[in-house]
Amino acid sequence: MAVKVAFMQLSDCWGCHQSLLNAHLGLLPVLPALEIVYWPAVVDFKHDSLKARENGSILVGFIEGSVRTNEDYENVKLMREKCALIINFGSCSCYGNVHGLANQWNKDDLVRRKFSEVESIADGSGGEPTQHTPGFRDKIVPVDDIINVDVYMAGCPPRPEQIVSAVIFLLGQKPFPMNDLAYCNDCAIKDNCLLDAGKLCFGPITSIGCSLKCTSKGKPCVGCFGPAKTVDSRAEKLGSMTKSLGAISSGDKKNLYEFLTLFLNVPLMAGFDLAGDILKQVKKHGTPDTPIANLPPTTEEIAGSLMAFLRDNSDFTEISNVCDTCPRIIGSKSTMTKVKRDYEGLPNMDDCLIEQGYICMGPVTRAGCGGLCIKVNAPCSGCYGQTEWGVDQAERFADTILKGFNVSLSKDELLAQVKDPIGTFEKFTLASRKGGV
Ligand code: SF4
Ligand code: SF4
Ligand code: SF4
User: Fold this and answer.
1) Ligand nearest to the CA of 377
2) Which contacts of 237-244 are long-range, i.e. CB under 8 A and separated by 24 or more positions?
């Protein structure tokens, strides 16, 4: 049974759809499993056909764009009614994005500037158009200002692999070995079980069959072989450990990250935020031949606890910011002595861009892109969103880099040299700032 999917486009640039189409052959294994029921950017479906569908009958709805117009607002609500899972697709829907910077001005001023003052207005009519237009809302808001969202996939745009990964995960399409027995049966250190030493080892729910046998080297099993059809009796112990992850150690965090990536096929986890109960929804909508829907009950419970932990702990920061995925040297031979604009000078490819004087948002930006901009010698401008919310972002940036980077400016000197603080530190996220601008 193919899975019904809908794509909605709000006010935005279409770049996320372009990124999806850039996956090219990467889409081939996924497409046959999808029944695309609405995708106006690509397929000629009419809006009325979406409206006519039964509520909750579409498994996954991807929403691209932020809410600027009354039509956006209605479409977001419509998608929530029709789709079991909503994926915020790109930084516009997640955070409001660059056009959210418009929230610094009121709507009348924006309309006057856009329709009366700019040099390209030719007809001199002025004022907001009223014919065949949906009407602007007072402020730009991200999608979760209006409806509950289940998954956040940031990026401007998200990487094609990330989008395909999300779809593959939701469909459980990657074939698992799914052997009958669990890895514990093959483990050479059963009598000195790592679980007894308090380490998270996923052997009790992972298929046998691997040749690496990490536990032989004292390392926990992180689930590369996917779920086993039956679980080992030690799964009970593992289950109880995953119910109290509050004081999880750093090493266990890494294991958990690897487990979610390898066992549940959630690649690029750092760029794929869960908010809703994904396992439940996928199971309810039935993809009967897929492993996610067929997990043994104990495995499902353990996976559910881990996902809930991840949902509730936005400080799951082991592999968290762009610097963690950046090849450049921090503590290099360079030191920031003044703040340079991006067009000033040509940075070298080895030293950290901050230490070369540029404002690079890497240390305060969520990982997920793999350091795309830095690899082409441009500072990160923060499109994957902030690693911490509800704080003064300029202060946070300054405090962060003064602690860990070669910077010979005081905080005041540093911040005084940034020409456009909001456009620099909240370029993609201003519309998500609680309490307004
Ligand atoms: S997130 Fe970026 S690429 Fe995607 S629609 Fe918005 S502006 Fe375009
Ligand atoms: S600040 Fe930028 S250039 Fe420096 S390590 Fe982080 S991501 Fe790389
Ligand atoms: S380096 Fe920064 S701005 Fe560039 S894609 Fe990554 S998160 Fe976005």
Assistant:
1) 2
2) 237/195, 237/196, 237/204, 238/195, 238/200, 238/201, 238/202, 238/204, 238/205, 238/302, 239/298, 239/301, 239/302, 239/305, 241/195, 241/198, 241/200, 242/200, 242/302, 242/305, 242/306, 242/309, 243/305
Strands 83-89, 151-153: pairing is parallel
The amino acid that residue 140 corresponds to is I
Say what the alpha-carbon torsion angle 366, 367, 373, 375 is, to the nearest 10 degrees: 150
153, 88 contact by CB (below 8 A)? yes
- What does the pLDDT average to over 189-198? 92
pTM (two decimals): 0.82
Please report, for the chain, the start and end positions of each structural domain, with discontinuous segments joined by +: 3-171, 183-267+283-312, 321-421
CA 330 to centroid of ligand 3, rounded, Å:
18
Token pair 């993609």: residue: 428
- Find out whether the beta carbon of 381 lies less than 6 Å from any atom of ligand 3: yes
Residue 379 Cβ < 6 Å to ligand 3: no
Q: Residue 362: what residue type?
A: G
Superfamily (CATH) of domain 3-171 = NADH:ubiquinone oxidoreductase-like, 20kDa subunit (3.40.50.700)
Could you tell me which of 303, 3, 426 has the C-alpha nearest to residue 435? Answer: 426
Confidence of residue 44 (pLDDT cuts 50, 70, 90): confident
Range picked from 44-48, 165-169, 261-265, 338-342 for highest mean pLDDT: 338-342
